Amino acid sequence: MKVGIDLGGSHIAIGLVDNNGIILEKKERRILAKEKENIFKFIETYITENINELLQKNKITSVGIAIPGTLNKTNIIKSVNLGIENYNIVEKLKEKINLPIKIKNDAKCAALAENSFGSLKNYSRSIFLTLGTGIGGAAIINNELLDTGDLPGMEVGHMVIQKGGLPCKCGNNGCFERYASMKALKNNLRTVLGLDENTRGQELLDMIRNNKPSNKNYEKIEKVVNEFIENLSIGIANLINLFEPEAIVIGGSFVYFEDVLLERLKNCLKTENYLFNKRKELIIKPAVLGNDAGIIGASLT
After folding, report:
1. Of 130, 155, 129, 131, which is closest to residue 248 (Cα–Cα)?
2. How far apart are CA 169 and CA 108, in angstroms?
3. Largest CA distance in the chain
4. Residue 9 confidence (pLDDT) above 90
5. pLDDT of 250-271, one tens digit each?
6. pLDDT reported for residue 197
7. pTM of the model
8. How large is the average pLDDT for residues 52-64?
9. Which of 12, 100, 298, 301 fits a disulfide with 66 by CB distance 3.0 to 4.6 angstroms?
10. So what's the pLDDT on residue 2?
């Protein structure tokens, strides 16, 4: 048995995972604002208590942790979502847990899970993207996660697709995720429709689904969605031109918008002159493991 942990900016989940990628037991909860004030204490206490509880009933061979941000083998170098820099999480946990502990970027963990048990399991060469607040990614080559050494690499969200473009939190301008993350799509829709930030994603999805030429906001919604699809296509085309994957899988909150975005994306990639090598078929699929991908993938690290 292995333990997989998905540590996010506002949520943590711990699962006991068998060799078939099945979660046998899971515990999860939100990370409260007051707990973020001493995030290091919270992480160490919560993980230690739950693993010790699992150890009382199970033989556990290792622990893997999926974490957003830039990591090396032992340290969280920078995680904006967690508000953490230069934190040796492995060393701190090993003081209290006598098990092998590995950490990996959360998008890479999700890619490993989808490659082993999800939408990518029938392909040996693929790209995984997660679209949410930002854009994360991973490349699978010959069924192995692309190894970029001490730093995780594949920061696809920070490819520059617009010279001198919108400022990004990374300090650069014109990054892919500023134009093609789900956050960008939702914020742009709220802006053109005069909606406040409390307008939920489901409401925006319904507006796209129900958009018709007779609607007064039809052109505004179409313009935002078409620009999003074009920018997403440019970024994905860059990755296809670099890696020539057999398939691409997209996770994150994109999966909830699949019915209104996926075919548009495929059509744009087929009709626009973005791809160096033209293809008769483009295999682009939604991720299928949902929120469990981080736990399952972390157990595979």
Report:
1. 129
2. 21
3. 64
4. no
5. 998 898 999 999 999 999 999 9
6. 84
7. 0.84
8. 95
9. 298
10. 96
Residues 24 and 150 placed together within one structural domain of the fold: no
Whether 85 and 209 map to the same domain: the answer is no
Q: Which of 228, 162, 156 is nearest to 191 (CA)?
A: 228
What total of structural domains would you count in the chain? 2
Q: Are 9 and 291 in contact (CB under 8 A)?
A: no
Q: How far apart are CA 108 and CA 114, in angstroms?
A: 10
At a CB cut-off of 8 Å and minimum separation 6, what does 171 contact?
none
Q: What is the mean pLDDT of residues 109-113?
A: 93
Closest CA to 199 of 90, 97, 208: 208
Same domain, 140 and 239: yes
Which residues are registered as beta bridge partners of 3? 16, 63
Please give the residue range of the domain that contains residue 244. Answer: 124-282
Task: Give just the sign of the alpha carbon dihedral 178, 293, 300, 236.
Answer: negative
User: What span, in angstroms and rounded, lies between the C-alpha atoms of 179 and 160?
Assistant: 10
CA–centroid distance for 250 within its chain: 9
| CA-angle at 6, arms to 134 and 258, nearest 5° | 45
DSSP-based three-state secondary structure for 274: coil
pLDDT exceeds cutoff 80 at 293: yes
Q: Which segments of the chain are extended strands (E)?
A: 2-7, 11-17, 23-30, 62-67, 70-71, 76-79, 84-87, 101-105, 125-131, 135-141, 144-145, 247-252, 284-286
pLDDT, tens digit (0-9, with 9 covering 90-100), for 231-241? 999 999 999 99
